[in-house]
Write a structure and sequence with these properties.
By secondary structure, the chain is an alpha/beta fold. The protein contains 13 helices and ten strands. It has three domains: 96 residues, GTPase HflX, N-terminal domain (Rossmann fold); 59 residues; 175 residues, P-loop containing nucleotide triphosphate hydrolases (Rossmann fold), CATH 3.40.50.300. The chain has a six-stranded mixed beta sheet, with helices on both faces. A four-stranded parallel beta sheet has the order 2-1-3-4, sandwiched between helices. A hairpin with a 6-residue loop joins β6 and β7. The longest helix has 35 residues. The relative contact order is 0.09.
C-alpha cells in the first residue's frame, strides 16, 4: 500500500546576528509550519534591490538550491519590489516578517471576529504594495486599459478600500457587542482583570489555573487570538473578578496590526488591573526585550502604568543564580511584581492577594 507523504515546507531564514532575533524568527517559522534548513545573518537586512546585500542574494541563490528550501523568510519588512526581485533571483517564494506573522494569525483565527481582524490586518499589509503587485501581474499596462481611464492599480486600490470599509463596519458591530457585554458585566459589581504578555509567556496556562478552564495551551506562538472572559473566585471569602485572556504580543509588531486587533486588545484599556506575564526563565537580554515590547504596546493602548501588576512566570525553571542576575540588572526595580509558576502553582496565593488588594482600591 502506497503511503502519502505530507509535503515539507523547507525554509532558509535571513535575520540579524543577535541571538534573540535568531531564536524568535525560527520560533515564528516553526509555528507557521516551516522546517528551518538554514539561518543566515546580516547586520543590515534592509538594503539594495533585494532587501539583502547583492552578495547575500547570491549566497541565498546557491544555498536554497543545495538545501532544498522552497521559501526564504526575511526577518524585516520588505517592499513588494524587493520580495519579487529576490524571489526571481533565487527561484523560491520570499516571505517577509509581517507576512509571516499574518500567516500565523490566519492559521490561529477561529472565531468570526478574529478572522475579520486578520482580514483587516492583511488589507493594511497589501494596500501599500498594491501598485507593485499589479505592475508585476499586468505588464505594459497603460491608462485607459480598464475603461473610463482607470488603470488596474486604480481598480485594485478601490477594491481593497471597499473591503476595508466592509470589514471595519463588521468589526464596529463586534465592538458594540463587546461594549454591551462589558456594561452588563459591570452590573455584577466585579472588577475587570486582563491577562497580557508576550506570546508564549504562559497567559493561557495562568487563565486555565485561575478559572478552572481547559483552553488550548501550546509552546507555539499566538495560541490565543480571541478574548475569553470568566468570573473567577480569588479567595474563600468569595471575592470575585472578571478575568480575560488576550492575544499575545511580539517584538516589532507594526502599529496597523495592533490597530486591527484593537477590538480584542481594548479589553486591556478598560481593565481595572492588567496582569502582565513575563517569562523570567529566559536569558536576561530576552527578558529585557520582551519587557520593553510589552510596555510599549500597553502604552500604545493607553493603559496606565498604575494599573499594571507584573506576574514573573516560570520561576519553577529559574535557578537562584539566575534570579540574582535579574536583580543585579534591575529589570523590575520599582515595578510591582509577584513571582509565580502558572504550571506548578507557586506564588498563586500571593498573586490572588495582590489582585484583591489592587482591585479593592478601584471599588472604593
Amino acid at each position: 500500500m502506497k503511503q502519502h507523504r505530507i509535503p515539507v515546507n523547507k525554509v532558509t531564514i535571513v535575520t540579524y546576528p543577535d541571538e534573540f532575533a535568531k531564536r524568535e524568527i525560527q520560533e515564528l517559522a516553526r509555528t507557521a509550519g516551516y522546517t528551518v534548513e538554514a539561518v543566515v545573518t546580516q547586520k543590515q537586512v534592509i538594503k539594495s534591490e533585494y532587501g539583502v546585500g547583492v552578495g547575500k542574494a547570491e549566497e541565498l541563490q546557491t544555498m536554497v538550491r543545495e538545501n532544498g528550501s522552497t521559501t526564504i523568510i526575511v526577518d524585516e519588512r520588505l517592499t513588494s519590489s524587493q520580495a519579487y526581485k529576490l524571489s526571481k533571483k533565487t527561484l523560491v517564494d520570499v516571505v517577509d516578517r509581517e507576512r509571516l506573522i499574518l500567516d500565523i494569525f490566519a492559521q490561529r483565527a477561529h472565531t468570526p471576529e478574529a478572522k475579520l481582524q486578520v482580514q483587516l490586518a492583511n488589507l493594511q499589509y497589501e494596500m501599500p504594495r498594491a501598485r507593485d503587485s499589479v505592475r508585476y501581474s499586468v505588464k505594459g499596462e497603460r491608462a485607459g486599459f480598464s475603461g473610463m481611464g482607470e488603470t488596474a492599480v486604480d481598480i485594485k486600490f478601490r477594491d481593497l478600500k471597499r473591503q476595508k470599509v466592509l470589514i471595519n463596519q463588521k468589526l464596529a458591530k463586534a465592538r458594540l457587542q463587546r461594549t454591551l457585554h462589558r456594561t452588563e458585566r459591570r452590573k455584577l459589581s466585579m472588577p475587570f482583570v486582563s491577562l497580557a504578555g508576550y506570546t508564549s509567556s504562559g497567559k493561557t496556562a495562568l487563565f486555565n489555573r485561575l478559572a478552572s478552564e481547559s483552553k488550548e495551551e501550546s509552546p507555539k506562538l499566538f495560541t490565543t487570538l480571541t478574548t475569553t472572559t470568566r468570573a473567577v473566585s480569588l479567595s474563600d471569602s468569595g471575592k470575585k473578578v472578571m478575568l480575560s485572556d488576550t492575544v499575545g504580543f511580539v517584538s516589532r509588531l507594526p502599529t496597523y496590526m495592533v490597530e486591527s486587533f484593537k477590538s480584542t486588545l481594548e479589553e486591556l484599556s478598560y481593565a481595572d488591573l492588567v496582569l502582565l506575564l513575563i517569562d523570567v526563565s529566559e536569558e536576561i537580554e530576552s527578558i529585557r526585550i520582551k519587557l520593553e515590547c510589552c510596555k510599549d504596546i500597553l502604552n500604545q493602548l493607553e493603559v496606565s502604568p498604575n494599573k499594571i501588576l507584573f506576574a514573573l512566570n516560570k520561576i519553577d525553571l529559574l535557578k537562584e543564580a539566575a534570579w540574582e542576575q535579574i536583580e543585579e540588572n534591575g529589570l523590575f526595580d520599582g515595578l510591582p511584581y509577584v513571582k509565580i509558576s502558572a504550571l506548578r502553582g507557586d506564588g498563586l496565593r500571593q498573586l490572588k492577594n495582590r489582585v484583591i488588594e489592587q482591585t479593592s482600591r478601584v471599588e472604593k
